[in-house]
Specification:
Number of domains: 3
Distance between the termini: 66 Å
Structural class: alpha+beta
Number of strands: 5
CATH superfamily of the largest domain: Nucleic acid-binding proteins
Order of helices and strands: HEEEHEEHHHHHHHH
CATH topology of the largest domain: OB fold (Dihydrolipoamide Acetyltransferase, E2P)
CATH class of the largest domain: Mainly Beta
CATH architecture of the largest domain: Beta Barrel
Helix content: 40-55%
Strand content: 15-25%
Shape: globular
Strand order of the largest sheet: 1-2-3-5-4
Length: 228
Amino acid sequence: MRATSIVASLAASAALADVKDTDFPMIGRLRGTLLEKQPPWLMVDVAGVGYELEASMTTLVALPATGEAVSLHTHLIVRDDAHLLYGFAREQERALFRALIKVNGVGPRLALAILSGMDEAAFQRCVLNDDVKSLMRLPGVGRKTAERLIIEMRDRFPHWEPSDDALAGLVGGATPSEARHDPQADAEAALVSLGYKPAEAARMLAGLEGEGSTEAMIKAALSRRMAG
């Protein structure tokens, strides 16, 4: 019995190693009910199981109200200490996320920050136009990272077909949910989680109290930041 257990354990470890290295991770799509939305986190109920995901602000602002149906493309990252699930409104956004995390020095957190600051079509324009300045407005992106993104991503875009509707594909429409907490505090916390410093996040949100929901405030703050 002990030998059998050891063999089973080794087999399970080998299977886990395969998952870590594969380009086709498990859990590629979720369809269910949106239970919670606290940027940058959300939870989707699928047949009684709650899946916690992290998403870009581009996806979060397009989510329906809590309690409504939602469908998301997902990407699973398996680490020794956690299984991390990321959700995306469009398959194209997920494809860009997967391409970004292959760039030297770009991890999942920075990739989400990039996708939160601009949709995939805007990012493509920056890369194809060598627009280092716009990329440097994103949190965590300095000149060297911006130049590396342009160099490594340029050859990947000729086969892409960017869409003007970067937020299409969600079931249930794009009605923002009502915030259960202080929308400004939640928006500031979300911006900090993207890599902005607290003082910078507060400046970005200054005067946006009338925007209403947390998602609307985040979207307005990011738009203001990218406009310079």
